[in-house]
Amino acid sequence: MIINPLKRVYLALESWFNLSFGSEWNPLYHLGTLSFFLFWIILVSGIYLFVPFHGSLEGAHASVEAITYQQWYAGGVMRSLHRYASDAVIVTVLLHMFKEFASGRYRGFRWFSWVTGIPNLWMIVTIGITGYWLVWDEMAQFIAVGSAQLMDALPIFSGAMTRNFVSGGMTDRFFILIEFLHLLGQPMLLMFMLWLHVKRLSNVNINPPRGLAIGTFVALLALSLAAPATSHAPANLGWVPSEIHIDWFYLNVYPLLEIWPAGQVWILTIGLTLLLMMVPWILPKKDGPKAVVDLEHCNGCGICFEDCPFDAITLRARTDGARYDHEVVVDPALCAACGICAGSCPASNPFRTPRGELKTGIDMPQLRVDELRRITREVIEQMSTDVKIVVFGCEHGIDVLGLESDDTRGVKLICSGMLPPTLVEYALKYGADGVMVTGCRQNDCYYRFGNRWTKLRFDGERKPSLRARAERERIIMHGAAEPDAPAIKKDLIAFRERLCKLRELARVEAGK
Amino acid sequence: MADIDNRPLRFLLQAFNYSLFMGLIWFFSNSPSVSLIGENEARITIAFAHAGQLREPCRMLSQEELNKLAPNMRKIDDCPRERSPVVIEAKLDGKSVYSASLPPPGLFGDGGVDVFYSAKIPAGQHQLDMKMNDSVRVEGFNHQFARQVTVEPAQILLIAFDSKSGFVIRPVIK
């Protein structure tokens, strides 16, 4: 399988973090929640800084200096945490974008999350800009003049704004406006935009694992103590600051104003933003046919509604006169066509109709559960070896057909979450000695929850669970991406040996 | 790559990763620095708002004209709204550094113009010549200003204009 170079880079990073953090704490799996955690640090430290901060032209710089030096152990640390956590947010957000892009999670049904995510980055950047402005030092002056140039390049201002930032042109009122924007206006807008960004997702988590949160906080605290954030000299609009140690995470656009006219800087930034927002249509991907509900076989239990990662399923009052209270409805615009709902439907039980067609409450037109059962039977029948292994695997993890050998056959799923646990039991009953289930790397499902739900169902912690009668030693799960092929093959060899021993044991038992 | 079971080694690797992350944050949060002005450079800034004079003068209405108007509309003069463009020219040591003709904004061409120009200049002594015309009814420039100025390195030479004092060099305080 050919992997695009960006995905290869991402997978290498992911492997490295899995090695050091484990899949539970891998920061790449928690970039969104980590960003929220950093926002909490920013909020708490910001509230602390706001109390002694003096929001005026004369008082701002002096009050920030007092916070930084007179109470370096508290205010100084808080200021550094505020600054470094803000910088860290840019890194986590950029990594989040890179991850989603590299692994193709930006197009098709995901276009909405991608498109609403890009302005979030700019929103965060503008909050950072107004934050730096409040210090009213030489860097704030540089930002103020640059921002005014940018504003004046727009037809609505026509040169009026830059005039504010010449000697004697600035007033406290403008400063208070910036303060209002930074403390209230921009964060409120960001909150709304973040809500919009995750609107098409269900079970949204905003807290990273505790270990990762503690590690990140300790690292930020260590940096704050080792290299406290400081200010430049106070702003003086009569003089040009000679050298500015700018924060490149937030202020990277401003140095361009020294080279290009503001209009060109706008063209570059708006052009880049639009280009990024249009990526889902520049590199399109067609989603598969959406899930279809068959009310005749749906009892409205709501498990698929609970399991859908993209909020595409809703429960409503029964409309067909059946004795159940509810029925489920799929919104095709939101459906990712992952099939997790088909795997969660209790009616997707292959033992229900051993001979006839297997109809289930909710199914995927491109790979019906009945078809899945037929393929499973066929691959078992194709093997004539002593040990027979069936490998169920998703489209986004390792290529299961590449694992095939005389005693191993692969069955491709859309997502590992579409595998009804009873189908594993079915495969074992109808001739398979062992079943391996592969999906994306653990905690990093292409469809968010496929491999997690499957594991919970197999562990009996989520409905529909794998029944106790299914022998657990004959079932293994291995989340893997393409570069993990050697590891999974090694696992397969060990699994085969275990199955051979089980067969031997069974023979001995039978002989007794 | 699988997870590592060795906890101390895992924490050591995590510490390494966190250090790398924090190192990245620390570096780009203040480096590389940006130099905004050379050692012997200063900046000239021309910044002011000014409305050009009316293109045509106000005209007193005759009694006959006033009688034709409704009693509540009888304003004794008629002033056309359109203003003159502001033509400005700045020379430093005899060389033109800024020259513009700024039309009055607004649907009826009756707004004031915002003049803003800023550029780097060598620090030291300069001969500054400012000229401006704000009336189409006047030939040439009706506002002029000439002055020997001395600007220190990194200083901003701010030139403003107000209709009472004409061109002024704003006091700059370090």
Description:
The complex is a heterodimer of chains A (512) and B (174). Chain A has 16 helices and nine strands. With 512 residues, chain A is of the alpha/beta class. Chain A has two domains: 25-282, Up-down Bundle (Cytochrome Bc1 Complex, Chain C); 292-351 and 358-511, no CATH class. Chain A has a four-stranded parallel β-sheet with strand order 7-6-8-9, with helices on both faces. The model of chain A has no long low-confidence stretch (mean pLDDT 94). Chain B has a domain at 41-54 and 83-169: Immunoglobulin-like, CATH 2.60.40. Helix content of chain B is 16%, strand content 41%. Chain B has helices at 7-28, 63-68, and strands spanning 34-35, 41-50, 59-60, 77-78, 86-92, 95-102, 113-122, 124-133, 143-151, 156-162, 166-169. The longest helix of chain B is centred in the first third of the chain and has 22 residues, at 7-28. The termini of chain B are far apart. The chains are: A alpha/beta (512), B alpha+beta (174). Chains A and B meet through helix 1, helix 4, helix 8 and strand 1 of A and helix 1, strand 1, strand 2, strand 7 and strand 10 of B.
Keywords, separated by commas or semicolons:
heterodimer, A: 512 residues, alpha/beta, Cytochrome Bc1 Complex, Chain C, 2 domains, four-stranded parallel sheet, two-stranded antiparallel sheet, 16 helices, B: 174 residues, alpha+beta, Immunoglobulin-like, four-stranded mixed sheet, four-stranded antiparallel sheet, 2 helices, 16% helix
Helix content of chain B: 10-25%
| CATH topology description of the largest domain in chain A | Cytochrome Bc1 Complex, Chain C
Q: Could you tell me the strand content of chain B as a percent range?
A: 35-45%
Broad shape of chain B? elongated
Shape of chain A: elongated
Contiguous low-pLDDT stretches of chain B (5 residues minimum) are none
Layout: helices, strands, pairs:
The complex is a heterodimer of chains A (512) and B (174).
Chain A: H1 5-25, H2 31-50, H3 60-70, H4 72-102, H5 111-134, H6 138-152, H7 172-197, H8 210-226, E1 243-244, H9 248-251, H10 262-282, E2 292-293, H11 303-307, E3 313-317, E4 326-330, H12 340-344, E5 362-363, H13 369-382, E6 389-394, E7 408-413, H14 421-429, E8 434-439, H15 450-458, E9 475-479, H16 485-511
Parallel strand pairs in A: 6-7, 6-8, 8-9
Antiparallel strand pairs in A: 2-5, 3-4
Chain B: H1 7-28, E1 34-35, E2 41-50, E3 59-60, H2 63-68, E4 77-78, E5 86-92, E6 95-102, E7 113-122, E8 124-133, E9 143-151, E10 156-162, E11 166-169
Parallel strand pairs in B: 2-10
Antiparallel strand pairs in B: 2-7, 3-4, 5-6, 5-8, 8-9, 10-11
